[in-house]
Amino acid sequence: MIFEKVKERHLPDVLTFKNGKEVENPLMLRKRREQIIHLLRSQVYGFPPPLPTKVDYLVKWRKEDAFAGKSIHMCVDIKFETSKGKFSFPINLIIPKKISPAPLLLHIAFRPDIPDKYYPVEEIVDNGFATASFCYKDVAPDTDDGFVGGLAGIFNRDNRSDQWGKISLWAWAAQRVMDYLQTLKEIDSKRIAVVGHSRLGKTALWCAAQDERFIAGVSNCSGCSGAALSRGKNGEQIKDITDTFPYWFCKNYQRYRENEEKMPFDQHFLLAAIAPRVVYVGSAQSDDWADPESEFLACVAASRVYELLGLKGLVTEDKMPEPGIRLHKGQVGYHIREGGHFFSRDDWKCIMDYMNEK
């Protein structure tokens, strides 16, 4: 049933090179992954800014007995030089006292608040994780401001049709946080996942696809241009998202408005680019704009890449999942809950249970 549903979407083959040659082994898959990243950069998210030569940090304050005395809470400025001068943005870092080195969930957040309605910090610590977060607006404003505010105004941006949009900037900033986290002995540098909801779920997946230091890319209700297939999608379409948020993407993405069947990719390419590492997708039954069915089918379609590597992708019965289902046995994880477009504590619990098994 589900494989027939995938077939009905007429997706481009993630395991076929541009020249028509099929991927037959892990070495060929490595080259195909490079091709996929280049394709998504040139056609969807844009090529990122250059890497900084050095990332510094400044601990602004530190609390030794945060969250009922169970954690250390630090506010740290991530700092680096650019051709137009220095840029910095703050992160919050919460480290449990009883686990060292601790796995970490890096949350790309809508607000700087600790905790927040989308970010249950104490529960995260109680489940055995350190956590770091930054507010995406501290990196670049989520407005169509001509790319002059925040980090967008620091880098030169010409009229190239494949130059970064703001999703790429936010993902780039998450990679700079990873630069800092790699220096901390209290953090297990091999077990850091990047997590986001909605537009920031798109960002988390794109960040993990490009940066192999992340063990996982985790999205919640990321929908159009995130975890959901575009071909045959219900709810938000490429035309809708590029009408409202053109600055999230490179200009080339505009060519696929009402023209999805001409895309040489679909969003299962994004999920597959994270292999052999972990992909986790959370959906909500009533989130029609994101389209949970298209998110689930993207996980199914991406699983072929994991299978080529001798790994389990999405482990599921041959039917669409009902709300309350957790599919946690493979390298591609998925859950769907009741309710709408929200990053709930139940979503976080599903994510943490899955990551604790990896």
Describe the structure.
Helix 6 (199-210) links the parallel strand 6 (187-197) and strand 7. The chain has a ten-stranded mixed β-sheet, with helices on both faces. The mean pLDDT is 97. It has ten helices and ten strands. The chain has helices at residues 2-8, 26-45, 66-69, 121-126, 166-181, 199-210, 238-244, 267-272, 292-308, 345-356; strands at residues 55-65, 71-82, 85-96, 102-109, 130-135, 187-197, 216-220, 278-284, 326-327, 332-337. Helices cover 30% and strands 22% of the residues. With 358 residues, the protein is an alpha/beta fold. The two termini are 29 Å apart.
What descriptive keywords fit this protein?
10 strands; alpha/beta; 358 residues; ten-stranded mixed beta sheet
User: What structural class do you assign from the helix and strand content?
Assistant: alpha/beta
Share in β-strands: 15-25%
Q: Which strand order does the major sheet show?
A: 1-2-3-5-4-6-7-8-10-9
Q: Quick one: how many beta strands?
A: 10
Low-confidence segments, ≥5 residues, pLDDT <50? none
Instruction: Give the helix proportion (percent range).
Output: 25-40%
Largest sheet descriptor? 10 strands, mixed
Question: How far apart, in Å, are the first and last alpha carbons?
Answer: 29 Å
- Give the C-alpha Rg: 19 Å
Query: What's the shape?
Result: globular
What is the H-and-E element order? HHEHEEEHEHEHEHHEHEEH
How many DSSP H or I helices?
10
Overall pLDDT metric: 97
